[in-house]
Amino acid sequence: MLAGPRLSANWSAHLILLLGVLIFVFPVYVAVIGSTHDVGTIARGEMPLRPGPYAIENYQQAWTSGEGERVKGTAPVSRMMLNSLIMGSVIAAGKIAVSVISAFAVAFFEFPLRMFFFWMIFITLMLPVEVRIIPTYKVIADLAMTNTYQGLIVPLIASATATLIFRQFFLTVPDELVDAAKIDGAGPMRFFWSILLPLSSSTIAALAVILFIYGWNQYLWPLLITTSREMNTIVIGITKMIGTGDAQTDWQLIMATSVLAMLPPVAVVVLMQRWFVKGLTETEK
Fold first, then answer.
1. Please, what are the domains in the chain?
2. How many of the other CB atoms lie within 10 Å of CB of 57?
3. pLDDT score, position 229
4. pLDDT for the residue 262
5. Residue 42 and residue 252: Cα distance in Å, rounded?
6. pLDDT tens, residue by residue, 43-53
7. Could you give the CA distance from residue 236 to residue 87 in angstroms, rounded to a whole number?
8. C-alpha distances in angstroms, 62 versus 76, 250, 259, 260?
């Protein structure tokens, strides 16, 4: 008797979820379709919802030059994607390395002002890049790190969020495991490398996905720190490809560039999906 209402409720939930997916996917579909048409078709508002004949030409032009008939002075998409890939990968790796070591120190070592330093790290959660942008830019400019990978990456490496997550996980490690490692003669670094890091693998994987996308999508800091087009990231490149009006914009190249810019984050999420979900849902966290 209850099967009918329960089945109806499930269908209702699935229909709502399907509607939400369609709402989010439709703009992406339009971008994919737009990248296969010529600029005239898009500018006249006559773009159909089916693929056009210019896909290979548009993607090849965006990948190799990044310049169209109306917009000049942009770097090739291949170069901008390389910059974003380096920035996102190193930021993710750097944030995880710094955070896991700092969390290890706060969770397992007793030293003066230990909790003071932890709370100082925690307070920086209220100070994002936008708040400290002027002094950070001043320091990077004085160190002659503008238009460099170091300037793009170093100011964004520290992560209070990741430090907090690792510390909370380390606090769940049983004292018996720590004592057993000491009895077996394992020093602090051996315990860290051989026990803590393997236990943290799913957390590291989940954070790697989040932090890579964070670095890939950075806009404000690369906009300020780079003036050379050779150092532009893909997000900055897309904005620079947009002219002052519709008549000055090669929309087919912008849409092709946008589709290419989505591929690395999507690939990371798809390839790391199992680890990502495991890292977020494990009960011991």
1. 77-281 (1.10.3720.10)
2. 13
3. 86
4. 93
5. 8
6. 888 888 888 89
7. 13
8. 6, 10, 11, 9
**What does the block give as tokens for 21?**
């997916």
**Distance of alpha carbon 109 from alpha carbon 187, whole angstroms:** 12
Using only the alpha carbons of the chain, give its radius of gyration: 24
Q: At 257, which amino acid appears?
A: T
**Maximal C-alpha separation, the chain:** 76
Under 8 Å between Cβ of 53 and 36: yes
Residue in this structure with the two tokens 């160190």, named with its chain if needed = 143
Nearest 5°: phi and psi at 54? Answer: -110, 20
Q: Which of 211, 221, 234, 225 is nearest to 163 (CA)?
A: 211
- Average of pLDDT values for 280-285? 55
Residues 151 and 145: beta-carbon distance below 8 Å: yes
Q: Alpha-carbon distance 81 to 36, whole Å?
A: 20
